Amino acid sequence: MTPKILEKLKEVEERRGIEILLAVESGSRAWGFASPDSDYDIRFIYRHEKDWYLSPWDKDETVEFMTEDDLDGSGWDLRKTFHLLLKSNAALLSWFYSPIIYVKNETFYDLFKTLADECFSPIAVFYHYLSMSKKYLEACRGDEVKLKSYFYLLRTALTGKWILEKGTVPPVLFSELLVLTDDFTRKKIENLISLKATKGESYHHPNDRELFGFLESMIKDSEEKAKSLKGGNADKSKMEKVFREILALSFKHEM
């Protein structure tokens, strides 16, 4: 699908008069537990020409598209991206560190990465994933559970634990989070990954009560320990300087 994705992104650039600085895969394909019928969740950061940012009026800072062949695209303008980075937005960080990259402006990436690491707020990102963990925990209490939801529960719970124990931006690839589990639990999860690769998005699976109890305890324990977490080290002056440096880069579509 990569050629189709690149073709679609090029079309979006030309139609909207923008330059895509980074385009990645998000969702289950980036996490490493896609189903055969999973969509392609394409997420991207883009910019306009410099003059676009000189207007006093609010403008649309989001681009979205959906194609008939399951390409689900969503992108944020550079200015919106910086506002979200200041808040250590968890979705933005997961885009930036995705292992599947379609488009990458190396200069932008190098400039932005320093900011992404500095702005990472353990407490803000932890509570984002804690909220999601609790939602999926309730969705997975039944005797049969939607396997897709069960993996969302696994991922969000383990991500919260990672932030508590490692204090760093959590990995996007789900397999890297499994270092936080014991061998027995890891084997159970790996078997579920293999099963999910053969089942559709709507597949329901018998609840593993032992695994569910493990996750429920983990979430409760993580919440109790979260008070010790710190915020990020965002420097707005430095961010503004980098923003200007990115806008000063040669614009792809300039004549």
Describe the structure.
The mean pLDDT is 93. The longest helix has 20 residues, at 147-166. The protein has helices spanning 2-16, 28-31, 78-86, 90-96, 106-119, 122-139, 147-166, 174-177, 183-196, 209-225, 236-247, and strands spanning 19-26, 40-47, 62-66, 71-77, 101-104, 144-146, 204-206. It is built from eleven helices and seven strands. Helices cover 53% and strands 15% of the residues. The two termini are 31 Å apart. Helix 5 (106-119) runs antiparallel to helix 11, helix 6 (122-139) runs antiparallel to helix 10 (209-225) and helix 7 runs parallel beside helix 10.
Task: Outline the secondary-structure elements.
Elements: H1 2-16, E1 19-26, H2 28-31, E2 40-47, E3 62-66, E4 71-77, H3 78-86, H4 90-96, E5 101-104, H5 106-119, H6 122-139, E6 144-146, H7 147-166, H8 174-177, H9 183-196, E7 204-206, H10 209-225, H11 236-247
Parallel strand pairs: 2-4
Antiparallel strand pairs: 1-2, 1-5, 3-4, 6-7
Helix pairs in contact: 5-11, 6-7, 6-10, 7-10
SS class: alpha+beta
Task: Name the shape in a single word.
Answer: globular
Span between N and C termini? Answer: 31 Å
Percent helix, as a range, is 40-55%
Tally of helical segments: 11
Largest sheet: 5 strands, mixed
Strand order of the largest sheet: 3-4-2-1-5
List keywords for this structure.
single chain, 255 residues, five-stranded mixed beta sheet, 11 helices, globular
How would you concisely characterize the structure shown here?
The chain has 255 residues and is an alpha+beta fold. It contains eleven helices and seven strands. The two termini are 31 Å apart.
